[in-house]
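Dear colleagues,

As part of the handover before I leave the project, I'm documenting each prediction I ran so the next person doesn't have to rerun anything. This entry is a single chain, and its sequence is reproduced below.
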Amino acid sequence: MEIEKLAKRLNNRTPVILGSARFSKFAILLPLVEINNEVHVLFEVRSLKMRRQPGEVCFPGGRIDPGDRDEEHTAIRETSEELGISEDSIIDVSPLDYMISFGQIIYPYAGIINNPDQIVPNPAEVEEVFTVPLSFLKEVEPETYHVNFKVQPEENFPFDLIAGGENYNWQTRKVEEIFYYFEDKVIWGLTARILKHFLEIISEGFTESESV
């Protein structure tokens, strides 16, 4: 029967995010380094020559290539290329929660760079690198603002086909933007969201005996 054929096609199907086949996919690494026996988070400043977001603070990362083994490998490969270090020097890589943002899927990871003294940033992509003590980030309270998005259908939108027509009650959207400040650096946007998520993870169930 036709209905049984349909059921068979759906059986044991693994669901994914609807439309994700068309999404751009990126992987990012939140690098941890040890400086003078203290844990720091390493950040990049994007090259001023970059077409997109020049001069902004970010984590190393980039688009997932077809030849990459998986998302984790992309994060490691991109970090190696941008910081001029070997892939083997990036260890203890662990996944954070992945994110969906404006047609993109971002897979963040946290990992340790065990030889930060050997970092030689790629000038085509990285203007400079800097580190922030983890102890500072765990104690500072970021500032939070919101960006509101207005719904604006295109000129020939078929209002006559929907209930309510031009008076349709569109759901408004807003995005939370987080800002961290360290010396003369401003950490915001996707980088700040990943950073905040990481700080929340390492603080869950935290006890004094586990002090980092």
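The mean pLDDT is 92. The longest strand covers residues 24-35.

All the best with the project,
I.
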